[in-house]
Amino acid sequence: MSQPPVTNHTAGVHTKPQLSSVTTVAQEESFKAPSRPHPRKIVVLADLNVDPPTDTEALDSFPRLNNEENNQEKMSLLGKDSETVELEGVPSSREEKVSSLKTGLVHVSRKMPKNAHVHFILGLMYQRMGQPQKAVSAYEKAEEILLRGDEDIDRPDLLSLVQTHHAQCILLGSSEDYGSGKELEGKELEEILFKLNESMKSDVRQASVWNTLGVLLLKAGHLQNAISVLSSLLVVAPENLDCIGNLGMAHLQNGNLELSAKCFQDLIFKDQNHPSVFINYAALLLCKYGSIVAGAGANGDDEGCEDRVNGVNVAKECLLAAAKADPKAAHVWTNLANAYFMAGDHRNSGKCLEKAVKLESNCLATRYAVAVHRIREAERSQNPSEQLSWAGNEMASILKEGPGESVGVELPIAWAGLAMVHKAQHEIAAGFKIEQNELMEVQERALYSLKQAISEDPEDPVQWHQLGLHSLCTQDFKTSQTYLKAAVARDMESSYAWSNLGISLQLSDTSSSQAEQVYKRALSLAKAQQAHTIFCNLGNYYRQQKQYECAKAMFTKSLELQPGYAPAYNNLGLVFVAERRWEEAKFCFNKALQVDPLLDAAKSNMIKAMAMCRVCAPLLS
User: Fold this and answer.
1) Rounded Cα–Cα distance for residues 509 and 198 (Å)
2) Which parts of this chain are annotated as the region Disordered (predicted)?
3) What is the pTM of this model?
């Protein structure tokens, strides 16, 4: 995101000179998050007066799950010891051969009703043909025969395979539309977990098949089901390293960073050579520490940013180790570029992306990351140059090519990327003197691309939030409220959307009490590292209402949570100005400038406060 305009407020007791407060806006990640379903999103807190990172810094190329996923097409759902049914032949006669084979198996199963193996092969046939309900019937018959306990048909290995595939077909039959994101019902999930436990008791080698089932659920977006299956598998196979890694990824996508970290740390402890261990743990750290921008001046407090600095450094070391182990993995270099960017090393960030492009020049995810890097460079320089034009063309190209690619960029993400370009162009252009019709044209392009991202996935709260933010920054408050309300309707627990809705309500009607209630709702949902910005905004509301003691309490609380937070010092200074306590006001403005010398509002307020001191001094003497 680029630097939006600072919102100016008139100080409480003076109409002249005007003093500037700082309103904090929460900005939510949108451009590399899965579009379906909607787990808790990775988000960014940023201030209107600072230059926050772009939305892909947490994860430019979402890390691979592990070898299970990469080799999934190579794995047979039949297990290690089962017979396979080959369906190969001349393409033109394939359907005839399959039909003939099916007819033969059905005939044999009728002639040999007590042959469990025949029913199992018939089940495999139906499963290969995408008919899970018929496969379930065949597996149930085979299982019934094997469970009779007859000595001549006692085949525990076959029973294990039957139970495994039976459970998989229950999953396929009850979740035909994987893209829906609908979790399985309790009874269905219980049945799958029961089959898992039964098959593992008879043959622990089936762990890899159940791990693959967990990956299928994870890829389909059934996060809770994936967590249930993988957690149950770890109870009976605690040393299954792939399962530990995939469970960590499931928790990460579900927004539970603590449990995700526990899984990845356990995996690192058990096997540092596991192919996914470093890239996935680094992804976790980039999510955790890249999702929060401390805000203007917050880095002035060394203790406040120490955890973030350490986290980013650990992520960088993990990715360097991953790059050493597999120097031809482009996605590793892309994530390493993110780590360098978060550390402020823009030069090495660019070099890593150059490396990724050399390795996979046609990979859409890599091209997307490079385009985002160019947007960042344009925003940092505040120069609407060739960088943004190139990025815009690249994003448009990704949109055109993406749907046909096997490993592409999802359409909502691609549209959000194009919206980044248009928003950056609009915000940079707004800072320069250009014709009004040109500015409106750029703004319309940004609105169009943001709305297109929503049309691709109308239930994604992040995209509604981004559209609300754009309207808020262009001071179209009524429209922003519509979009932000749509965001909170889709995610009632998003403290960011609630906080921004409070800002919009406050700026559109300073006498309304709605903003106070909305801010309090945001505070009830906010995590510790987010709350200081909301306290600061609530303090601004109380200051405007001339409830100065309440305002001072809110700013003080903000500074307790985030020492060195420049906007809180600046806004506290405005309270003292309203109370005509000039020395205290100058102290606060000076403190804000010490921790953030680039905070223009504090600079302006300090000059005006000093001028008022000179005017009032003769009167007091």
Assistant:
1) 63
2) 1-38
3) 0.62
Find tokens 């994860």 and name the residue.
Answer: 59
d(CA 211, CA 68) in angstroms, rounded, equals 8
Query: Residue 469's Cα: distance from chain center in Å?
Result: 17
* Six token digits for residue 96: 């005839």
- Rounded CA-CA distance 347/333 in Å is 14
pLDDT block averages, 10 residues each, the chain of length 621: 33 37 52 39 33 32 36 32 34 63 80 82 81 84 79 67 74 50 62 69 68 76 84 87 90 88 90 81 83 46 63 89 88 89 86 89 83 80 72 82 60 81 77 71 83 87 88 88 93 90 89 88 84 91 93 93 89 92 91 87 88 67 44
Scan for tokens 């048909």, then name that residue: 153
Q: How many CB atoms lie within 10 A of CB 302?
A: 10
Residue with tokens 């996979």: 360
Q: What is the pLDDT of residues 236-255, one digit of tens each?
A: 888 888 889 999 999 988 88
The answer to whether the beta carbons of residues 331 and 365 sit under 8 Å apart is yes
Q: Which tokens hold the place of 182?
A: 């609908």
Contact 54, 184 (CB under 8 A): no
Contacts of 94 by beta carbon, 8 Å cutoff, 6+ apart: 87
Task: State how far the Cα of 453 lies from the Cα of 464, in Å rounded to an integer.
Answer: 9
Pseudo-torsion of CA 429, 430, 436, 439, nearest 10°? Answer: 50
* pLDDT at site 259: 92
- Residues contacting residue 436 through CB under 8 Å, at least 6 positions apart: none
Check residue 128 and give its pLDDT: 75
Q: What angle do CA 249, 267, 339 make, to 5 degrees?
A: 60
Residues 511-518: contacts with CB within 8 Å, 24+ apart?
A: 515/541, 516/541
Residue 27 bridge partners (DSSP): 44
CA 410 to centroid of chain Cα atoms: 14
**CA dihedral of 41, 42, 43, 44, whole degrees rounded to 10:** -170
φ, ψ of residue 47 in degrees (nearest 5): -110, 150
- Tokens 């309900």, residue? 133
- Give the phi and the psi of residue 45 in degrees, each rounded to 5: -100, 130
CB of 375 closer than 8 Å to CB of 420: yes
Read out DSSP for 249-272? HHHHHTT-HHHHHHHHHHHHHH-T
C-alpha–C-alpha distance, residues 217 and 229, integer Å? 9
Residue-level pLDDT at 203: 63
